[in-house]
Structures are given as C-alpha cells and as structure tokens.
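Researcher: Here's the sequence for the chain we discussed earlier.
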Amino acid sequence: MYVQRNIILIIVGVAVILLIRLFFLQVVDKSYKLTATNNALRYDIEYPARGIIYDRNGNILVENVTTYDIMIVPREFKDVDTAGLCSTFQLSRDEIKHILKGMGRNRDYRAFTFLKQVSPGQYAVFRERADRFHGFYSVARTVRRYPRNIGGNVLGYIQEVDTSVINRNPYYKSGDYIGVSGIEESYENALRGKKGVSIYLRDSRNRVVEPYENGQLDTAAVPGKNLVSSIDGNLQEYAQMLMQNKLGSIVAIEPETGEILALVSSPTFNPDVLSGASRQRNYAKLASTPTKPMFNRAIMSPQPPGSTFKLVNGLIGLDEGTLTPNTTCHCGGHYPYGKGVGCHGHISPVNFRQSIMVSCNAYYCYAFRNILENKKYPSIDEALTAWREKVMRFGFAQQLGIDLPNEKAGIVASKNLYNRYYGIGRWNPLSIISLAIGQGEIGVTTLQLANMATIIANKGFYYIPHIVKSIGDNEQIAPEYYEKQYCGIDEHHFEHTIEGMHLATTGMGGTAWRARIPDIEVCGKTGTSQNPHGKDHSVFVCFAPKQNPKIAVAVLVENSGAGGSFSAPIASLILEKYLKGKVLRTDVEQWILNINLLANNSGT
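Model: Thanks. This is the structure I predict for it:
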C-alpha cells in the first residue's frame, strides 16, 4: 500500500510538472508561440549601420551609404510584371529567370534575396512600381564607403558571411556581412551593432495586416560603435604616395603612447573597390595580382633587419658589461676570423658611438662574440639563450599584439635550431657570427623595427603598438595597450646609443646622411637586408626630435640596395611632414616620387 501511494504521488508530480511546462510554453514563453505560428508571421530584419571610423584628427576614414536588398517571398510570388522587373533593375529576361530559378520549388513564407545592394535610384523606381511586383519587398542595408584612398590594409573590408562563420557564431545569418581584414575584423563586435526585427501578422489571404502582439516583441536595431583610430590620415596618405612604384612597408609610431600614426604596405589597394556590388569581381583581380596588394607587408613579412640590429646587440653588450662606450675597434675592412665578414671603408679605429655612425661590421662581430663568450655563462648554449631572451625583450620573435589580424612573430635563432643543424657541441660563435649584423637566422617585421626605434627613443620601454585610440563615447581600448613594457636594459645605456644614431645623420661619414633635416635633430640607423632572390632590401629606423621624441619610423624598401639609399630619405620626409606639417625639401621629395623600383621586383 505504501509503495502504491508513492507511485501515485510520483505520477501526479510528473503530471503537474508537465502541465506547468506546457502552460509556460504556450502562454508565458512568446518565443515558442513565434515558432509554432511561423507561417502566419513575417519577420522584417532591421540591419544596423556599422560604426564610422575616424582618424586621430576627427576626419572620416570609413563611412556608410544606404543601399537596398530586394527580397521575395515565394508563397506570395504571383502575376509579376517580368518586363517591369527588367526595366526597373536593368536586367535581361534570362537574368530574371536565372534568379527566380534559384528559388526552386520552394513556396513557403521564408524570404529570399532577389537582388543585393540596389542603388537608391533603382530603389525609388521599385517603390513607384511596387504594386506590380507581388511578393517583393525591400530591406535597407548599408555598405562601406571610403572618402580617401588610403589604408586599405589597415582599415580592411567586409564581406558576406559563409557557412563556416554561421556555424561558429549564431548571431550571423545568411546574407549578413562581417569584417574580414584590418580594423573591420579586429573590432567587428563593436562596429557591427545589433540587428533589430519587426514582426507582422498575416491574415487568411497571407496579407500583412498588423504588427504582431502590437509590436511588443519588436526590437530596434542598435547602430555600431564609432571608432577613433590612431592613424593620421594626412601622414598615411603622404607615406603611401612616397611608396608608389615601390615594394615595401612603413610604420610610424608615437613613442609616448604606442599609437600607430601610419602603417603602409606597398603596393596597396583602394578599399572602395571591395565595397558594393562589384566587390567579388574586384577581389578576384586583387588576389591574382603578382605584387599581392592585399598582403600586409608591415606585419606579415619578416625580413633580416640588417645593420639596424646592431643597436640591439650594442645595448645588450653594454648591459652585459662585455662592451663599454669607450671600447674601440680597428677595422681593416673585414672581421678577420672564421669565414670573415666584410666591411665598407670608414674611419678607424672607432668607439661605440662611432661604430653606430659608420655602421662598422667588424666592431659588432667582436661585440657579439664577446657576449657569447662571457665567462659568467658556463656554455655557449646558455650564453646564446640569455642573449636571445634579451633580444625578445625588445619585441622580436613574438607577436607584439597589435590590434590588427594576422601579425607574424618573426624568428630569432635558438640553441635548439643550431643543435639540430650543426649537432650538439659542434658550433661556436664564429658559426653564427652573421647574427652580429642582423643576418642569418633572424627575421623581423617592419612593425617590430619601428617598435625597436620606439624603445630607444623612450630609453628602455614601449607601449604595445595599436591602431585604435577609443571606441564609442570615449570607451577605452584593451588595458594592455596602456601598460609600459620594459626591455630590461638600464636607461643610461641608451644615451650612448642615441648619440651614435644622431651622429649617423650628422657626423662625418655617417651612413644616414640622407636623413638629415634642417632644424630637426634626427636619430637614425641604416641597414641592408640580404635578399637571396635579388637585390638587397633597404632598411632604416629613426626617431625625432632627439629630445622628447614625437615620432619613430621604420622603412623597408624591397630590392633597392643599402639602407641609406632609399629608406633613409623616405623616413626623413615622413618625419618632416609630421613634425613641420609640410615638406620644405621638395627636391628630395620629387626625387623619391620619381623613382620606380618595381622593375627590380619582376620575380616577386
């Protein structure tokens, strides 16, 4: 009897739970009712405008223009004026048939896209003739517009989502758009806003008669948040102009904040061509261009830093105590040990500051060897590991964390690499001496070089380089962009390095003499990045003014020769443009603008 009573109680309890659940689904939970009565309802999606992107001075870099998607409800499609459709949208009958064929035999109430991104002019004609097109309606959309042809690789573009995106993120539905490059991708969640929806009730003849539930379940679209980028639009435009007919990249950073003032990958592309109805066709053209304009060389193409890396080795030597500002070296035109490393003609002997000024290879071969043979390390393996760790503190061999997608980390050789290549215990400093001058098993991005210049300008620290200043109503970006990153080198060592960089632009025999600017103290270092596929790459890093630096720049021009040839004058023009607001050395400017180096890159 006791067991029977318990069974009855359990059955009653389950029944009560089911009744409560049924009441909740049918009366309380509107979403169930929406699903159950789906054929009697029509959902009109309201798409939000994406956030506008500004430069640091408040100038618009990316804005929106309104277009319209023409939708069709198959179940309501009947007695359509085909000739009218053709004349309204400038389509042939065959094109109309092809589009309608895509509906197949589907005859439900789900809307399908008939045409995408119809212009306001065509939309106006469509509205006038709407009574002739049963089953058609329109949805307002926005597409991106770029008032200036700058920053294609920085701003990025948007495209329609594919099934992989839809499967990963339930927010997106077929026909939605998403940022896939640049700022558009990195800040997609802020820029996209939130879709709204209006729900309408149909009558027995499938006509929309009134808002469902008096519109209580409707939601308004929330516009995307506007972004203020760190880019100086005028500087970006000028830097792009200087890089016309050249392959390479430029990065300019404000040292006191880590904000990127300009980021150029050349050749670049006009972002406007990847917006609107012609996007797909233009994308195919850009993707097949041999010079790869959509490839962001500034953050995705690690190259040997060449002699610019001597700055890092010199600072590490000073910090390790294996080098002093007064250490001198006689250079007879080469480093005389092992396979030898050649050097160009210059004054000799040279001290530390002069070694930077004339970029003496022999000096840094001695310096690097002394670091690896430092007695405080029991083996060369441990010495190289300690050296590599100090190099990485400068931001090399790792992603810096810029707020752009697809940043590459680059490479700095480790003991494991050499143990695999030579064998354990079968290599020594002379085996890897090319690292002394930034060659061999080392690759860095132009962004990392600009960051290195920033560290020296700041005498030992940097902020993670970033491309956006604020989101929405002065909402701050990620907190890590406000934190100082220290490289671990004592501040007083940087004074000697900075003086050497200043001598490189002003001293007798300085390799960076082409970077001189009247009335501005420029600190710079040239580099030549060896290229096994052709002419060497020209590299230059600098900052200015010497006291309280306002801008740090790195330039890499591919297949163009020594660092002082083209990269140095290009960087100096960027410094002058930013610090003075205009360029007075018009002869240098015109010379750079007239140079076409693409012929050197025929195999690229």
